[in-house]
Specification:
MeTrfase_RsmB-F_NOP2_dom; Rossmann fold; binds S-adenosylmethionine; about 450 residues; four-stranded antiparallel β-sheet; RNA-binding; eight-stranded mixed β-sheet
Length: about 450
C-alpha cells in the first residue's frame, strides 16, 4: 500500500520563525500529544526509562505540567506505542512512498504517537489526526512534513482493517535472544504476551479467597490475588490503607517462597527496595535485614513496610561493603537486572536496553552473588533471583557460581511447591515467562519472566 503523502508534505506551507500559533496552544489534548511525542523520543533516542519520565515527582517537566487526566492519556499512548512499536513501524512503512529521512526522529515519534491512538486506543481517529497535524505545524522540525502527516494518518485510519504485518514488536536483538533461549514458538508466544497490558497482582497478608471475592479477582495457584485492569486508583481499593496487601507480580512472589519455613530465622534481603520480598519474608516471621544502596528507594521501602505494618531492620548500604555483625541464616539476592521479564509492565525495556547492558549486568550479578556467599553461615540458604528472561543473567550466572567451593546447589523440587507445576527446570531452577499461568481471559493471563536458583553455603 502506497500513498503520495510524502510529496504533499514538501509542499506544505512554511512558517519559519513563527512558533505556537495561539489557537494551537489552546487546543484541548494537544499538550498531552506533544508531551507523548517528546517522551517517546526520549525513550527511543536517549534510552531514558519511561518510569523515570512519568514519575509524578521527578518526571519530565512537560509531563509534570499536565493534569492527572492528560498524564493518564500520555501513559496510555506511550504504552500502546511501545508495546506495538514493530507493528506501527511496519504499517507506517507500508503507507509511505519512501522511507523517512534518518534524522527525522521527531517526525517518526509524532507519527507513532498518532498511529498508536488510531490503532489501539479508544480515541476518535479524526482527533488523533487533527492533533498530530497541529502538533506538526507547531514544531519547526516537523512543520514541513505536516502534509505528509495528514496524508499518512488519514490513510492509516481508512485502511487500518485491511493492513497487516508479521513484524515482531521488539528490536531484532531482543527477538533473537528469546528465540535462542526458548525456541521460535515460545519466543513468539512471549512476544505476543508483551503486547497485552498485564493484570494487577496482589500479595495478600491472609485469606486470598476472601480478598479475591471482595476485590472481584481470582486466586492464582501460588496464592496471589489477580485483578483485571483497574478503573480507578489502586490506593482507593479496600485493604490498601489498612495495609492488607501489596502489589507484586505473581512471579516476583516466588523467590522468597523458596526458603521454605523461614519463621524465626535471621534473613538478609540484599537488594531490597521497594520491598515486596522484604514484606513477604517479614510476614513469614523472619527477622529481616533489608539492605539497599539507594536512599530514595530505601525511603520507599520504609513507607511500604509502615503501611503494611510489617517490621524489618533497614540498612542503606552497598552490599559489596556491607559488614553485618553476624552471618545470616539465609540471604536473598534479588539482583539488579535488565528487567526483560517485565516488558508487559515496562514496554520501554527492550527499546532502552542493549546486549551490552545485559553482559554488564550479568557480570555484576556474579560479583554480587560471590559477595552474598560471604554473608551466610555454613549450612545457610541463598536464593539468587532476578526478573530477566535472558539466561545469561539467570541460568548462566547460577551455574558459574557453583565453581565456588563455598556454594552447593540446593535444587528446587516440584513437589515442594505443587502450585508451580511447569516452572521448575530439570536443574531445579525456577524459571517463569509471560506465557505461564495462562487464562482463557487474556486480561487475567500471564506472569513476569523470573529466574531463581537456590544454594546452600558449605563450610568451605
Ligand atoms: C530488582 S530491584 C529489587 C526489588 C526488590 N527485591 C523487591 O522485591 O521489591 C534491585 C535493587 O537493588 C538495589 N541495588 C543495586 N545495587 C546495589 C548494591 N550494590 N547494594 C545494595 N543494593 C543495590 C537497587 O537500588 C534496587 O533497588
Amino acid at each position: 500500500m502506497v500513498v503520495s503523502g510524502g510529496k504533499a508534505a514538501f509542499r506544505a506551507k512554511k512558517h519559519a520563525g513563527k512558533r505556537n500559533p495561539p489557537e494551537a496552544a489552546e487546543r484541548p489534548g494537544l499538550a498531552a500529544r506533544q508531551c507523548a511525542v517528546r517522551l517517546l523520543g526520549a525513550v527511543i533516542e536517549k534510552k531514558t526509562s519511561l518510569d523515570g519520565l512519568t514519575d509524578n515527582q521527578h518526571g519530565h517537566p512537560h509531563y509534570l505540567a499536565l493534569d492527572d487526566r492528560d498524564r493518564a492519556l500520555v501513559r496510555a499512548i506511550l504504552g500502546a506505542a511501545l508495546r506495538n512499536r514493530g507493528t506501527i513501524d511496519a504499517l507506517l512503512a507500508q503507507l509511505l512512498d519512501r522511507p523517512l529521512p534518518e534524522n527525522a526522529v521527531a517526525l517518526k515519534a509524532l507519527l507513532h504517537v498518532a498511529a498508536a491512538q488510531i490503532l489501539y486506543l479508544d480515541i476518535p481517529d479524526h482527533s488523533a489526526v487533527d492533533l498530530a497535524v497541529t502538533a506538526a505545524n507547531d514544531d519547526p522540525r516537523n512543520r514541513r512534513y505536516a502534509g505528509l502527516v495528514n496524508a499518512v494518518l488519514r490513510r492509516l485510519s481508512r485502511d487500518k482493517d485491511k493492513l497487516s504485518t508479521s513484524t515482531p514488536n521488539a528490536p531484532a536483538w531482543f527477538a533473537e535472544t528469546l528465540v535462542e533461549a526458548y525456541g521460535a514458538e515460545k519466543a513468539a508466544a512471549i512476544l505476543a504476551m508483551h503486547a497485552v497490558e498485564p493484570p494487577v497482582d496482589l500479595t495478600v497478608k491472609s485469606d486470598p479467597q476472601g480478598w479475591a471475592e471482595r476485590l472481584g479477582g481470582i486466586v492464582l495457584p501460588n496464592g496471589t490475588v489477580r485483578l483485571a485492569r483497574l478503573e480507578g486508583p489502586l490506593t482507593e481499593l479496600p485493604g490498601f490503607a489498612e495495609g492488607e496487601w501489596w502489589v507484586q507480580d505473581a512471579a516476583a512472589s516466588l523467590p522468597a517462597r523458596l526458603f521454605g519455613d523461614i519463621a524465626g530465622k535471621r534473613v538478609a534481603d540484599l537488594c531490597a527496595a521497594p520491598g515486596g520480598k522484604t514484606a513477604q519474608l517479614a510476614l513469614a516471621g523472619a527477622d529481616v535485614t533489608a539492605v539497599e544502596i539507594s536512599a530514595n528507594r530505601l525511603a520507599r521501602l520504609n513507607a511500604n513496610l509502615e503501611r503494611l505494618k510489617l517490621k524489618a531492620h533497614t540498612v542503606e548500604a552497598n552490599l559489596m561493603q556491607y559488614q553485618p555483625e553476624e552471618k545470616f541464616d539465609a540471604v536473598l539476592l534479588d539482583a539488579p537486572c535488565s528487567s526483560t521479564g517485565t516488558v508487559r509492565r515496562h514496554p520501554d525495556v527492550p527499546w532502552t536496553k542493549s546486549p551490552e547492558d545485559i553482559a554488564k549486568l550479568a557480570a555484576l550479578q556474579a560479583q554480587f552473588l560471590a559477595r552474598t556467599v560471604e554473608l551466610v553461615r555454613p549450612g545457610g540458604i541463598i536464593v539468587f533471583s532476578n526478573c530477566s528472561l535472558d539466561p545469561s543473567e539467570g541460568e548462566a550466572v547460577a551455574r558459574s557460581a557453583l565453581a565456588n567451593p563455598a556454594l552447593q546447589a540446593f535444587p528446587v523440587a516440584e513437589e515442594e511447591f505443587p502450585g508451580l507445576h511447569g516452572l521448575i527446570t530439570p536443574e531445579g531452577f525456577l524459571r517463569s515467562t509471560p506465557q505461564d499461568f495462562p487464562n482463557p481471559d487474556p486480561r487475567l493471563a500471564g506472569m513476569d519472566g523470573f529466574f531463581a536458583a537456590r544454594f546452600r553455603r558449605t563450610s568451605a
